[in-house]
């Protein structure tokens, strides 16, 4: 029980810190998303670069401290959804984020900050997800590549023969 409380408290504290940082740099303004997609402002790109850098740093530490848990966390390397599905899904997500002025990363903070468009955006995200789920197979069929063969090198570090 204390483990659950500790993790829950950490999630709340880190989420509050993230939301505070988002509000301080103007990231919660829906115009920031539109500007990013039109290549007029790059505050969201800076956020993603920082997130990728931090993720790589922590994943590097995890690969050294607990190699088995690290390998287990890389389950995504075994299944590919194929290019048409990936491109189609990303295009739809980008269009929706541009129109709504929000995305999956920003929406919880926008809801917490009471941004006026946050609740309609949340409803739109659920509706869009349901619609995509309903038409996905007719658009893309069974466009899923098979799992990697045992021992197959599927990640850049494995192919290069280096540690993560």
Structural description of this entry:
This protein has 164 residues and is an all-alpha fold. The protein is 70% helix and 0% strand. The protein has helices at 2-25, 30-37, 43-65, 67-73, 83-100, 107-112, 118-140, 156-160. Helix 2 (30-37) packs across helix 5 (83-100). The longest helix is centred in the first third of the chain and has 24 residues, at 2-25. The chain is globular and about 50 Å long. 10% of the residues are buried. The mean pLDDT is 79.
Rounded to an integer, what's the Rg over CA atoms?
A: 19 Å
Percent helix range: 55-70%
Measured distance between first and last alpha carbons:
34 Å
Along the chain, the helix and strand elements come as HHHHHHHH
Reported for the largest beta sheet, the result is: none
Regarding quaternary structure, what we see is single chain
How does the helix and strand content classify structurally?
mainly alpha
Key phrases:
164 residues, mainly alpha, globular
């Amino acid at each position: 029980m204390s483990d659950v409380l500790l993790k829950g408290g950490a999630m709340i504290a880190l989420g509050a810190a993230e939301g505070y940082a988002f509000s301080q740099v103007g990231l919660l303004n829906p115009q920031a998303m539109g500007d990013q997609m039109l290549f007029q402002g790059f505050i969201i790109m800076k956020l993603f670069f920082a997130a990728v850098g931090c993720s790589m740093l922590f994943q590097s530490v995890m690969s050294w401290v607990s190699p088995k848990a690290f390998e287990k966390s890389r389950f995504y390397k075994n299944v590919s959804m194929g290019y048409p599905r990936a491109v189609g899904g990303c295009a739809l997500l980008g269009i929706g984020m541009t129109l709504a002025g929000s995305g999956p990363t920003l929406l919880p903070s926008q809801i917490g900050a009471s941004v006026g468009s946050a609740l309609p955006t949340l409803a739109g995200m659920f509706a869009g997800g349901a619609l995509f789920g309903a038409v996905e197979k007719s658009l893309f069929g069974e466009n899923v590549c098979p799992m990697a063969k045992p021992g197959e090198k599927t990640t850049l570090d494995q192919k290069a023969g280096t540690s993560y």
